[in-house]
Amino acid sequence: MKDLKELLILVVKALVDYPEKVEVKEVGGEQSLILELKVADTDRGKVIGKEGRIIRSIRTIIGCSAAKLGKRVVIEVIE
After folding, report:
1. At what angle do helices 53-68 and 2-15 cross, to 10 degrees?
2. What pTM did the predictor assign?
3. For residue 66, what is the domain's CATH number?
């Protein structure tokens, strides 16, 4: 699951102005994994995007990678 966390960090850091403030916390279970994403306040809009399109795309990328591992991933943007 560390690979999924690193993939999320890599994608998000490429989008934001303050990559040093990107934090991802893993909350795991047997079949599912929750990744809590925290970014700078000014970068939150860049991660979410218009009508949530960017975060939806990020969730799709991470979800497809997780499916190959037989896992389910939920990404939550923490304020």
Report:
1. 160
2. 0.90
3. 3.30.300.20
